[in-house]
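Budget justification aside, the reviewers requested a transparent look at the raw inputs and outputs of the sequence design task funded under Objective 1. We therefore reproduce one unedited record. The lines immediately below are the structure tokens for a 296-residue chain.
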């Protein structure tokens, strides 16, 4: 179990700051998507939402009564459904890095509560669990809304699209919770649960802290881009990556002036032309002086 927790922490350090954002592929696929596809997107978004899953794991960690589990999960569902639906309908937006940073703090809060931190360090009883889960559900729902609003939703059938996405989120949540409950029920029967429950929640708090720092780092990059300058070579490769992403959308050849001495010609991608598959290899070699070509 200890090794598993260490692997979890190490893996979190490699997760990008937008751990479960809407990718360019999602945005392109959703242009002509039906309601089932919105539902599928909502489910996969929840199942890849590390912050949401960690929070839910912390919430049910010590709950053994099915009625208690149902009560807190219902409170969470109502909370995140309210903000997901209405924030999206009213186009209420916020910087998603900051919202996800707050969500990461909810993970830390629940781990602190599980460690009996309120009594040990604050000499007070823990706040009502159902109420706090509902409040945090509102925050998580706002985070889901900021992601959903990254998609080209349009105005046609908007309400049904939002409801379909929310339904998918609920399906993903039920699937994730089912696995968590099976694992916890089996683990509680073993002696290691008592020995490692505190270690698990310390790891949960550290994971939330790492996610918090990663989101703040992402926010700094978006709001203070000038403080993170790229050197010339990095800048070139950044343009390379961007061009590879937009190649399928290019209707005709484009020319990119890399510097006064060199020009990169990118042909339009023809699905029938298999030579396009070698385009990435061709682009690996480049020149900064117009004469000497090299690759990295």
């Amino acid at each position: 179990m200890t090794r598993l927790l260490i692997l979890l922490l190490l893996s979190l350090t490699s997760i990008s700051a937008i751990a479960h954002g809407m990718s360019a592929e999602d945005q392109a696929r959703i242009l002509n998507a039906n309601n089932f596809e919105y539902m599928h997107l909502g489910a996969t978004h929840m199942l890849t939402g590390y912050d949401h899953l960690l929070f839910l794991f912390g919430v049910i960690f010590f709950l053994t009564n099915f009625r208690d589990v149902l009560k807190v999960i219902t409170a969470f569902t109502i909370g995140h459904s309210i903000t997901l639906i209405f924030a999206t309908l009213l186009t209420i937006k916020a910087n998603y890095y900051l919202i996800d940073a707050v969500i990461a703090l909810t993970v830390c809060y629940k781990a602190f509560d599980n460690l009996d931190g309120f009594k040990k360090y604050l000499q007070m009883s823990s706040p009502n669990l159902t109420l706090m889960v509902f409040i945090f559900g509102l925050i998580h729902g706002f985070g889901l809304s900021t992601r959903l609003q990254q998609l080209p939703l349009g105005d046609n059938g908007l309400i049904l699209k939002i409801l379909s996405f929310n339904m998918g989120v609920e399906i993903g949540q039920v699937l994730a919770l089912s696995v968590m409950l099976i694992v916890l029920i089996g683990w509680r029967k073993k002696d290691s649960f008592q020995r490692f429950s505190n270690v698990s929640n310390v790891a949960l708090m550290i994971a939330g802290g790492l996610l918090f720092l990663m989101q703040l780092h992402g926010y700094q990059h978006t709001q203070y881009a000038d403080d993170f300058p790229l050197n010339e070579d990095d800048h070139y490769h950044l343009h390379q990556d961007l061009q590879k992403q937009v190649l399928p959308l290019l209707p005709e050849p484009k020319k990119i002036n890399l510097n006064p001495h060199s020009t990169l010609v990118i042909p339009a991608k023809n699905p029938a032309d298999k030579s396009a598959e070698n385009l990435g290899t061709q682009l690996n070699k480049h020149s900064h002086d117009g004469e000497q070509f090299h690759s990295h």
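Residues 28 and 219 are 25 Å apart (CA to CA). The beta strands are 254-259, 262-266, 286-287, 293-294. Computational costs for records of this kind are itemized in the attached budget.
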